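User: ok so my PI wants both of these folded by tonight, can you help

Assistant: No problem, let's get them done. Here's the first:
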Amino acid sequence: MLGPVEFADPTGTMRIGGPRLRTLLGLLGLRAPAVVSREALIDGIWDANPPTAAALTLRTYVAHLRRRLTASSLDGLITTRASGYALNVPPEWVDVRRFEERVRLAGTALAAEAIPQAVAHLKAGLRLWRGDVLADCTTGAWARAEATRLRELWHFATEDLLTAQLKLGDYAAVTSELESLVARHPLRERLWELLMLALSQAGRRGEALNAYRRARARLVDELGVEPGPGLRRLEATILADDSRQQQKPAASATRRAQPALPSPLTRLVGRHAELAEVRAQLTQHRLVTLTGVGGCGKTRMAIAVARELAPGFAHGAWFIDLAPVTEHAQVQAVVAAALGISEGPYLGPLEALTENLRSWQCLLVLDNCEHLLDACAALTATLLSSCPALRVLTTSREALGLPGEVTFPVPLLAVPPLGEGGAVPMRLDEVKRYDAVCLLLERSTAQTVRYLTDADAPALAAVCAAVDGLPLALELVATRTEVLTVKEIAARLNEPSLLRVRRYAEHPHHRVLDASIEWSHDLLDMPTQARFRQLAVFAGGFSLAAAEAVWHPQPGERPAVDALSDLVAKSLVVVERQPTGTRYRLLETIRRWAWDRLAECPPERTAARERHAAHVLHEAEQADQGLCGPSMADGLERLAADHDNVRTAMAWYAETPNPLPQLRLAVALARYCQLRGQYRQGQLWIRQALARQHELPAAETVTVGAAWASDAMFSFLVSNYGEAQASAERALEIHRRHDDHAGACRALRLLGSVARERGEYEASLACLQQAAALPCDDFAAAGVLMLSGFTAWLAGDLDQAEQLLDKAYRRYQSSGDSECLASAQIHLAAVAYYRGRNEQARELVDDALTTFSKLEVKEGISWALDLLGLVELRQGKVSSAIGTLRASLDLHLALGDRWRQSSLLDALAQAFVARGEVSRAAELLALAAALRETIGTVVPAIELPAWQATWDAVQERLSEQDLRTARIRGGTATVAGMLAKIS
């Protein structure tokens, strides 16, 4: 990426076509092997103007990139995760990372005065540049920002290289290179400084002074400013013929003490990109503050950055630890003492500092400022305004709040992504590519971690995810490997004592995780402490409105937004930008600590949980109302974001005496669970709530009816038709008894759907006609029309189906419900397909697939792929059709829809006959027949001609013995097992 974006292997270089495809590779490469979210990829590729079907287009780009890599025998490099995609290559495969690593190694070598090694590293790093960085990518904000950062790092490395070469006495080569550089970058004062030094060192003092005049002229003409203090001091030194400056380009001024940086006992793991970014920030800005939660590694990063930058400062880098300081008034004296600056008879510590540092070119590192913010801010502001060559790097859980301050939130270490149910579909070597895992293993001294296998990968990922990749927590967990295996640690993650192990650290708040959190907690006032611990009731995250609901501020109390801002500023709450808006969360380790504090006050905990559950119920019911209309996408996103909170609220309501809130919440979530394919979870919640229906007052019977209808829906979706019919009949009886026409209409639609899939088309239409006769709203009426059209085309009555579906489509257009509109398009596409209108069918399917993909409606996606595969098969694209039908079958298997699975098996059998694999086709037909026998259905009437033709072909081409063998194999197979055989 340090030039045109391309992929190289030992056989040669592969260019990636198209700027958006190259941008995709660049985005994945810069974060490799970490997962890049779909939102980040969409923003990076299209900036602020993504297409309507951005998610689907992104998936197309990923598929195309996979094909390009596979064609070069590089398959398996791009993996799909729950939240996005990852490029499974180690960081050293990416030229940007190799460049950053070379610069880091050079900084270490320079700090150790190993100048030749530093030169070698810098030259190797700079040789990686092949042209303008990311020049052939899209010109969005991401590419511009990344290119700016990398170009600045290139300048930084180039200047370091020239400085090192000057130390080796290579004046002629350096002078020639610098003349070229100042011509191209005339406003970079550091280059002019180096040119003056090179000329002066070579005895060319007149030319050195002329270089100063040239630099001044360019700065005055183009920017209207005089040269900075570095250039002015250098001119004065040359004029005074300072022999010390002539002999050594980076000689230090006389100091009252020698600068020293701490030497950590352990190796810094990862952080290559972060270190490079902080270094680049310090080259552009004079004050940078590393912020973050306690234990995230701010101090280690500050030491590493200072060690790498120290050689570039004439007076070095100085590290002052403020953790032991307890009084604001002590800060100035502590800093002065650390620098070896003594107070005079007429000078206080601040005056002594400003007087001495005014002539210094140095980096000052102030560590652990959060408990002394006012004093640190005042001192830093004074020093920066008085000392022009001074740069300050601070670490604090809260920013200083000064003008010109650049804050760098230190991120947590990358953890392996967990799939549904905590599954980790990764091998051990893949898991080890994540920095959190590397740190855990690095700090583990037990020999057992040296012999881990792929079976340990899920446990490693679970441990790292449980502590959010927090370095301090990982180091504490690592000490447990002396007595527990990684799997045993993973099994005990909920035990509070797991992270209460002590370890050596210089300061008490770094020895135990609880102490680190308590350090931040104690900096809060008492009302904010109470609000902080009440946030522990949230699982996963929360919005400002949710925090307000739990806190329930009274008139006159501090507004919730102010308290939340304070907690964010102190790094106790993390901010997350999501499509639904700004959300917040506590790191899990912090949440557990806050939960323990909340548990110490049972009445407060009970009140907080009640308010939390009530808010979740309110939000769920509000979102559910929007799942049938134009606000569906927003409702789905809101419920998805609060999924963990929903589980927590459901568990709370299950323990409370009143069963009604539990039932209401389960009913409110049913439509969401249906759309997102979470059938088993949705039905489990419904049945747990229904188990308590006898405790409900009679007035709530309508809610019970809605719950039975939801239970019928989930049973129907997984082809349990007997249970579905019984629950729907129960719902119908309740709704009729209470004259609830909307509820009765829904129950009749469900009964009609059950009859349809059993092949009882007349009974299905009879139920739907009863539903149509009820006084229901337009949305319900459109649903009756669509289901009637569905039954009609399955029965083979395409004329009637088209009329009904066209009416339903027009009604859905006026309602604004995009999911139902897409469902109507799918049914119209089926009618078009069976009428032989392939292009019309394809167009309708494509539109529907775009909508379903955007909304992440798994059932809709799988239906669309089913029809798409049939169209491709009819067009003679057999291999493509098999792939599409297989993908649809895979989705239907995950959903549990056995009715569609059987039809897809028949369609695949038809495709394998077309490909000449008749034995496989016979197996597929046998498996479909066995599946239909299990669920009590038949081949749909509309599919019978294709099924018969496939069966006839199988009988004609296979011997009786081969046919019998294939049918036995298929009849005893499973759908999952058959999928594994299909390619």
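One down. Here's the second:
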Amino acid sequence: MAGAAQGAVDSLLGRLTSMLLDEAQLLGGLRGDVEFIRDEMETMNALLRHLTEAQHRNHLVRAWMKQLVGLARDSEGNVELYLHRFLRLLRSLPARHRIATRIRELKVRARDVGDRRMRYGVIVPDSVPGEDNIYDGNDEESPRMAADPEKYLRRSALLLDAAEPPPDPEDEEVVRRGVHTLIKYLSMEPAREDAMPAPLQVRVFSIIGTDLADRVAYEVYQHSSVATIFSCKAWSGAPKNIETALAEILEQVGGVQLQPGQEEDEVTNQAAATTVDREKQLICKIQGHLKRKRFLIVVTTHRLQEWEWKRIRVALLEAADGSLPGSAIIMTTADYFLVMSSSPYKIFHARPPRCRRVGSEFYIAKSMDLRDKCPAKIRDIFHLCHTDTFAMKTFLHLLYVNRYRREDELQNYKNALSECIRLNRSISKQVLAWCYSELPSKYRSCLLYLIVFPEGDVIRTTSLSRRWVAEGLITATTTSRATDEIWSSTDEAEHCLDVLFIRGFISFPEISDEGNIKSYTVHREVREFIARVSTDVNFVDSNLPPHLAQYLSIHNRIGLQKSISDGDDSNDIAAYIPSLSASPQWQLLKVLDLEGCKGLDKNKNLKSICKILLLKYFSLRNTDVTQLPKQMKELQFLETLDIRQTKVPVLAKKAIVFPLLKHFLAGDKISVSNDARKSEGSFSAVEMPLGIHRMNNLEILSHVQVTNSSSEHSGIAKLLKLRKLGVALRGTSAKLSDPFRQIDKLHKCLRSLSLNISGLTSALPHMIVELHQLAKLTLTETYLNEDGLRILGKLRGLRCLRLLHKSYIESELSFKQEEFQTLNFLLVGTSEVTNINSAVWAAPMLEKIIWSFPTTACISGLGNLYVLREFELNGECDPDQVREEIEGLWKFPVFKHNPKVQNQEDIAAASASSSSAP
């Protein structure tokens, strides 16, 4: 909370200072009010800086900080609105007077917040003793400050490779036998008991063990035969409590989606319903969906207390009343005596065949790579965590941050873990608490922000970074190095992601073709940890349903003005927009992320959005929007506009200027097809926005269609802050030379260039070789011959190459020695190519090849591609020669053959993931 409060106050102070510098913007008498608010905020900011160093804050301090956050954000919002109206002075004087009145009211609030601190004795606590052990954020080993880059890369690779210890063959055999035996029992018709005239209605299977038990349960649940045995199934993985388990099961068997924290509203209309009442309601609803059905329910519960395990079992048996015989419930637990006392139908053991600590020894070996030797206390800590792989992995991250920890510190860690084991508390949560205590305070709000995303989401790093910046959680900063290098907010956000990874809070499942981290996930243990912390500090507003948090700004203070109609989907953000937009706080939103939402064109939703005057981040990605309203021009504070994967062909028919816009992301995903007519029917970029030369804060422009207009070409050349550019070009070689020359003028600022070229009637212009920033190239109908391929081979920065319909007319695609030195990804989607070969020292960094629609397929020289890890062949051709060549390689690349591919929509989605603008 201290980090969030300080970020809000810092942002406000910057805005007030700039406002006071221009007295002409202030109405008479308002300057004194603004000065008073600024002075109060400066004093409070000094207190907050002390609070960030204090590790323990009482409830009075937290309540005061929460009030301060609200005051700061309200003040900044009204100041921004005031300045926005100043741009339209003559026609907005009444509106400016209203806002000025609001600022005067905020002055009174500022005085009250200060007085309240004194009235209730809110005392700033002392910093924790031993403060020198707390990480201060200036780690010499941080990615962008490492004195020895090779040393940093080696240690980073260690963390990336240390996800899991290698599978133990004996463990794999335990899982295999467990799955085989359990599936056999599930397939059997239930036997009749001697004292019962009918077979058992539901069978309860118990699996004894921990991680292996969960693996057996999951693989049984996913087994292909389950669909033929049961008419419905449900899974609840490690639920926090019985309500969570029942809500998850109800969602799967009945399609009733209950958002976290909303079970009460969905289950009963009585606001004061007890926990028992809610459980009974959930059980009744599940029972209604399971009647006359043969079902399978799997619950992994080995982390729950004994009484919780028993309650879940009893609840599921009650819900099973009325189901068909042969239904089954599978539950896991580590407690043998608990299983025996519950009289299960069948007991399975999923424990290692002998007591061993392979996992802990694996992580001990990894820790020795971080330092010359491994102290006995570190070994003891890993042995204490040997049943919890996530805890061991996270502790390795903790050692990465500070390899040489003091003996007394390690002893404290050891004692705390022993106490967790004695009290049957989570070891993972304890290790995460240590990581959190050493996280720089300025990044704690960024970590807590992750709670707005649904559990299990794969979150794009670039989208998250831009949201952080728009929310004010990340700002441009100056490093503490001697050079005092100025970082942009984007650089600071990327550094924050590095810091969160180093401390084990996030993991990265997807790396782009350029080697950049594209997305990340949050482990369930981490999510539960930050959920508890964010609740403790009131990080996210609770006025709205929890599932809306991922779409809106945090601290939005918007309340629903009216309930949505019965005919609307309660989980669809579009259904809430009319009610949300009626709130006076609507225009103060800074983030609106509507990715994947449908129905936005209805009920004038887009026009309502255009009233959010302070909006900074706006995403319509993958929505059904086809046209943007002319009212978009009102969004003068917009910094990110994302309309990718929409059918919006043009930003506006008339010139619209967004003076603060930094990221313009557009274009539908590329359609890869061997049918020319289908290729022509799709577009991959929007038209170049009119007046683009006036948006001189642009850093990313992708993907836009550039015509032969000289004004468009010169407009691009004036964007001197542009870092990434994605352009679609169509025309002859001569016509391409002019845009190439204009793009080359950006060589001092441009870091990455992506070109989509189509319709060439002659060879590629040789000037393309001079575009050293060219990283991604997509060609369609360019009719290149071998000479053209030789030109492409000289591109020093090319990492991703797509050769689509009629792009290359030779039958042999050959890579010569010393060519394509940086190429990482190759897509061949033209039927003319029947042979691919590579010479020695050609394409030394090529990792993935996708080859689509060859009439015949022959490859050679793949042994020269030393880092090739995946080869995908699509189309009705004989794959035997390709398969034999790949199987003969010593590195065993993955080979996939999709013989029935007619249209490359799905394959395009996979390959275009690296083509989409960052």
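The first strand starts at residue 202 and ends at 208. The CA atoms of residues 78 and 102 lie 7 Å apart. Good luck tonight!
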